[in-house]
Specification:
With about 400 residues, the chain is an alpha/beta fold. The chain is built from 18 helices and five strands.
Length: about 400
Amino acid sequence: MNSIVTNVLAAALNATTEQLQSVASWPDPSTGFAFWIFGQTGTPKPQFTSLPFKETTASALRRTPELAAFGYVMELVDEVTSALWSEAVEHLRGREIYPADRQSFIFNPIEILGVAVGLRQCPKTTDDQREWFSNTIVRGLKAGLFRTSVSLLAAITAIRYLDEAKAGAVGSQKIETSELATPELVLVCGIDLGFERQAQLPRKQLQLDLLSRILKETIRVGDAAEASSIWIVVRRAIDGLVLISDEATPLQKIIVLCRRFPLFVERLQNRQRGRAPYNVDDEYDVQDLLHAVLKLHFDDVRPEEHTPSFGGNASRVDFYLPAERILVEAKMTRSGLGQKEVTDQLINDVARYSKVDGIDTLVCLVFDPERRCKNPDSVENDVQSTGSRLTVRAIVCPKGL
């Protein structure tokens, strides 16, 4: 794997991570959009999404940036805010949506999509309100009022998201990425991540074009919306490079597979055609799934391999990869097994397995779906710094930014 490419992508990942970690108050349109695309892609959400919402009011929600912001997070709002949101939509119906000066949310891609999400997700909105908004967008499309390619894309995506029946009448939008400024390309990638089925864009080509820009120029990250789009695309690229690279070590590949494990679980829990989800209820479920994932990449994966006794007790490691001289241990947090307990267990495991011949590396996966580990970095650092002769890597996931 080319070190220059890796370093540039790592720098972009660090810059976007810093931007997302700097958020102190939310939601606004940018952080709401970020929340939405992290959720739609099944990617662990940034830490700011665990912060309480800023206070809002009926008058504040009558401003469309606020309306859009809370539209994106509608799944989290309380009943009172939900009712205020619906009332604000009713107030919006009395305004001129297409003013002569074009100073309207309807031409702002993030805002029009945020209102569309809210209209579909809010339990207090009515079919009449959704019909009004759909017809309003269609009216603007037919009149040719969306003059930029990105605002046109957002309008078409919003109408498809709200009313599939009307989507056929508005046509499609082809995006020429070479003609887009870099901030526009980032936004288009974000729209694709958040609305894949409705945007109907060539995802692979879009992301390759964005990665090409990142490698060729310095990209300034302006807000959480831009940071989230870039972060997801770059994180996927780095992981993909590791998994296909002949230069990547087995340890690097296992770390990537463990970090992406929650994406695999999320997909199995949201199955098509009404199929029952594959629930991951305990450590045994985690081990079964991880075994399957490892077998896709390594020929000899031995489950529940016995190890010599330690402190008078014999034990079994979850997975042993003899050719790679790697042990893999999987944990799942639960009631009674939080951050302290799982850290203590793993430190004991490191001491035990360091006595075993034929291994050089221990990988510890901690699946933490309920975020019981309040400081996952601390878990990883404490387990990895035990002074063992082994190379030890701990991965707590999902882990926000």
